[in-house]
Amino acid sequence: MLNKALWKKHYKETKYLIWGFWLVSLVYPLNIINYERIAIDIMEKNLLNGSEPPALFFNFEPSGFISLFQMILLVGIASILLGLERSNQSMDFTLTLPFKRHVLLRSKWSIGVITILSANFVSFIFTSIILYNSYLITLIPYHLFLFYYTSSVIYLIGIYTFSLLIGKIVGNHIGQFVLTWIFLLLPAGVFTLLSHGIRFHYEHLTETTLNNSFYMYETFFHAITMPISLIATDFAIETAQLDGLEPYRFYAFFIPLVITTLFLSTTRYLSKNMRSEHNGKLIIYKPFESLFIFGVVICFYLLGGTLITSIMYPLETVVVYHIGGLIAGGIAFVTINLLLNKNIRFKGIGGVKNV
């Protein structure tokens, strides 16, 4: 699946981010060593003082930050492999290489997946060796680390694959990076804004409080939002509270699997429909523009209404909510139309050029 020549090409383009991902992944076992040192120091001080040893528990707080930096680096890799190729007009050269288009696209997916698997595997091996040869094995349930690395790999592959999918409809690397994060966080974000709007209108029009059962869907939307779901998994592992992970365990496998399957099954179609005439623009497929504008305006309408009612409290009203929504939605409509007509091209050392 990954041709040697393509491997060299992709590696040369993304080597700094790839090694950055490796370094971030290896922070986990390094911090385990540091945690062991702290635990031993606490035990020794209590023995010297003649006091009973404290009840130590595992609370590895940096795990969430590790996952966050891993996600940022992976989206960056995908943005360089696809978006930057469109921005600096090097896609025309890539398409002249003696490879089928779907092979080119799958090779970009493969190098990211190999990076995720190899870096996490090495990190897992080091972590396991450290645990089995340290005092921490008596404090930390080993299955926590198995669950951490398994779910982390699955989520990260899903996020990387999703970024490549976004790269197929976006015409530049900046747009791909930004829109990937917007769409990754979209389920939880839309639910938060929509639930606030519904609750606000219900309570102001009926003068009664909305039942809290309305928020029973919050867990679902957070679970299908991959970055939030991964961070939630990290937090549960830190505090050794896996009981609250039931909603996330299913989606940890299901959502990334669906995205990855969708990508791999449509690579031939996406490759045949590679369009270079709109390279540099925010959206390269014109039929998507209307839908994109509509979605952006609606989201900003909800955001404007939420913000202005928070600012105007306790003088907020339904009318104030919609005034804020109209202002934010109008600004978003004008701005997004301007951005859609911009052609952003990367000139290398010279910087970014707007046409």
Helix/strand layout:
Elements: H1 4-25, H2 27-48, H3 63-87, H4 91-95, H5 101-132, H6 142-167, H7 173-184, H8 186-206, H9 218-223, H10 226-238, H11 246-272, H12 286-311, H13 318-340, E1 344-346, E2 352-354
Antiparallel strand pairs: 1-2
Helix pairs in contact: 1-3, 1-5, 2-5, 3-6, 3-7, 3-10, 5-6, 5-11, 6-7, 6-10, 6-11, 8-12, 10-11, 12-13
Summed up:
This protein is mostly helical.
Strand content: under 5%
Overall shape: flat
Question: What's the gyration radius in Å?
Answer: 24 Å
Major pleated sheet: 2 strands, antiparallel
Number of contiguous helices: 13
Helix content: over 70%
Q: How far apart are the first and last residues' alpha carbons, in Å?
A: 37 Å
Uncertain spans, ≥5 residues at pLDDT below 50? 348-355
- What structural class should be given to the helix and strand makeup? mainly alpha
Strand order of the largest sheet: 1-2
Total beta-strand segments? 2
**How are helices and strands ordered from N to C?**
HHHHHHHHHHHHHEE
Structure characterization notes:
- InterPro entries: ABC-5_transporter.
- It comes from Lottiidibacillus patelloidae.
- This is ABC transporter permease.
- There is one protein chain.
- The chain has 355 residues and is mainly α.
- It has a domain at 1-179 and 225-278.
- 73% of the residues lie in helices and 2% in strands.
- It has 13 helices and two strands; from the N terminus they run αααααααααααααββ.
- It has helices at residues 4-25, 27-48, 63-87, 91-95, 101-132, 142-167, 173-184, 186-206, 218-223, 226-238, 246-272, 286-311, 318-340, and strands spanning 344-346, 352-354.
- Strands 1-2 form a two-stranded antiparallel ribbon.
- A hairpin with a 5-residue loop joins strand 1 (344-346) and strand 2.
- The longest helix is centred in the first third of the chain and has 32 residues, at 101-132.
- The chain is flat and about 65 Å long.
- The two termini are 37 Å apart.
